[in-house]
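#lab-general

N.A. 3:47 PM
ok so I finally got the sequence cleaned up, no stray characters, all 249 residues accounted for. can someone with queue access submit it? mine expired

B.Y. 3:52 PM
send it over

N.A. 3:53 PM
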Amino acid sequence: MPAAAQAASDIVATYTYTDGAMVTICTRDAKHVRMDTSPTTYTLLTDGKVYSVNCDEGQCQVYDIGAMASSMSSSGMTSMFGGGDSDPDYEVRYEKTGKTETVAGYKGTVYNAVIFENGKIFRRDEMVMSSDADIKKLTEAWMAMSEALTQSMGQSFQDSLNEAKKMGYGGILRYGNEMRLARISKKSLDASYYKLPKNSHMVQMQQPPQQNGDMGLGDDAKEIGQDAKESTKDEIKSSIRDAISDIFN
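B.Y. 4:20 PM
back already:
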């Protein structure tokens, strides 16, 4: 492969969040995606599976995210994340604002993503989309990862990306005030970058005690209202995203 082509094979981008967190996502294609949340922790999409890797003093512990989700499902915890029979039905519609915005040096078009939950407006998110090929490639990486992590990233986020792709609006530069592209570069990464490290140890998850329903959260939510339930979900999703640096994020 010519050196120039090889150098352009991997895209490395850093996104910042309002809480100060930073995520660096690297992708060669939708089957090779890595998200670094700290110098020693990252999430890896490889061979169709998603792993969380935590390295310390030359040793790496690996968690199979799919197995963790399965374990939560069998213990009745999936109702906190989605996956139950009463999951809401999301629909996303885009509104053109007529505005443009430049993010990390890339000019994009501003849209309002209106998210409906069971036919009612659930939230509105302003999104900046770009037709640049590299930004599109990054978004495909986000979609591949979020499909595997829908429970932690949120179904509305996944639906927003799916609808944007279907409408041909391009790749994402900014999602609301929550996530913003900070910088992007092209590199030639070794193939091992997208594989589990050789010195890794797979951590076997113990089966949690069997619980009924959603451990009482459903009944509590009915008493204190839907807003409180959504707040609880958001806190859990946030903690999962941070695991993906301190394990499950």
